[in-house]
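Z., the sequence and structure:
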Amino acid sequence: MRHPLLRSAITALMAMMVPAAAGATTLKIYPVLIQLDGKTPVQTMTIENSSDTLARMQVRVVAWRQDDGQDRFEDTRDILANPPMFEVAAGAQQIARFGLRTTAGTTEKSYRIFLEEIPTERPLAPGEVRTLLRVSIPIFVPVAGAQPTLDWQLSGAGDRQVSVTVRNIGSAHSHLNRIDIKRADGSVLSTRQESIYILPGATRSFLLDTPGPIRAGEKLVLDATSDTQRLSVNLVSQTGSHGDGDH
């Protein structure tokens, strides 16, 4: 079943607090989503250092696509990050700017910012490895009027699991935060709370645990929550769980 989702602007107003290992850097980053287009070709990001030590950072922007359910990244010159390297003193902040160097296509373009901490000192002992900070933030170059359209499929998998496959056949990304699987009587079979991006043309599959087996042909309800709305889709299980006699 196909069901459209609206793209969200709310996420771009949120902030991300990113703690690292004990004694390492803690950063506050906002916004946590950037959108660039012909009318707004430059956006800024604020990086606050909440720790008591200096943070040395580098910024990379890569092209982002999804193949076989996996995120794939490639070098790109479509977006310029400035400055590419910087230091943030304890309690201070840094502004990073991102400039669009490409035009919109027929489908929304997707990128990722990688904000990475660079060691400021050598290891204290031979073989010691420091835990460094690495943060990823999405950038989207939208197409006017583009929307995601999701095609869902459910099937039993194993004795107490359900397999969920969702394909985005629209021209913009979808960002899901929660998925609930219910029986026709409203009883909840499984819940998954996770930030899930599905780019245009991409397919994502995952397993959810259930308290009992799923029958082939069983009518189920899938509730999914995005950044801006909640959708409900009526589905029929394509195959049953192995524990119910369907193999």
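Residues 165 and 205 are 4 Å apart (CA to CA). The domain at 2-141 is CATH 2.60.40.10 (Immunoglobulin-like).

Let me know what you think.
H.
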